[in-house]
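Readers of this paper often ask what the protein records in our data store actually look like. Such a record has a labelled line for the sequence and another for the backbone structure tokens. Nothing more is needed to write down the fold, since each code stands for a local backbone conformation. The record that follows is passed on verbatim for readers who wish to inspect the format.
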Amino acid sequence: QVQLVESGGGLVQPGGSLRLSCAASGISLDYSVIGWFRQGPGKEREAVACASYSGASIYYVGSVKGRFTFSRDIAKNTAYLQMNSMKPEDTAVYYCAASDRLCSSVYNRYDYRGQGTQVTVSS
């Protein structure tokens, strides 16, 4: 059974940082395309970042470029999203997702999806 479990969310002040984790079981993230998505209050879910197999290519939505960084630890079978210089508009539930296809901005195209972790940016 494949599981993706996000953690690391919480409350952070504007300008602060958080690192989200996506721990996988039943699937090797080294051979998976991994996407990070978020859904803010009253907003549509949007793709934030996507990494191809083994991280050869990483894509970011424009609003987070230069602030968010994707990484993965193969030994821990965990993906991360480092979020710096955070803004109130980054407030959302963040989800990770995995598949064996290409990067996609469409959440439902991923075979496996986590339950999400809440991130709130507020002073």
Q: What stands out?
A: The chain is about 0% helix and 50% strand.
